[in-house]
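QA checklist item 7 of 12: single-chain prediction sanity check.
[x] sequence parsed
[x] length recorded as 145
[x] structure emitted
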Amino acid sequence: MRLTTFTDYCLRVLTYVGMKDEKVATIEEVSRHYGISRNHVMKVVLRLSQFGYLATSRGKGGGMRLAMEPAKINIGVLVRQMEDDIILVECFQGDGCSCRIAPACVLRTALHEALDAFLAVLDSYTLADLLQPRAKLAKLLSLPA
């Protein structure tokens, strides 16, 4: 299982913004601290704000803050929202599967169970959990502790 870079960046942006508490974070800060292009961060911030994870404001003093408490941001839900299609193998698509053994395939069932287990683990975490090593994260992101 591999998440898209976009979902990875979503998790990084939320972690960074979550570490800022009530202070405003900017796209430039996130881009600089993670070494991610500004354009990528802009796309991520737009999507996260569309889903209600971030509150954004423009202009002088503008930026982004979490739109909800970190404990209310479920990682499994976020991953499902950001990943357009979580398709491990072709037969997960349903229509258009060219695999000849699909009707009798046990592997497909096993992979579905594995995906469900993967997502169930992510469902047990919130952004608050990801922010627990605050002192270490602050140091790594060059933020005040």
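[x] summary fact logged: The chain has a mean pLDDT of 91.
[ ] second reviewer sign-off
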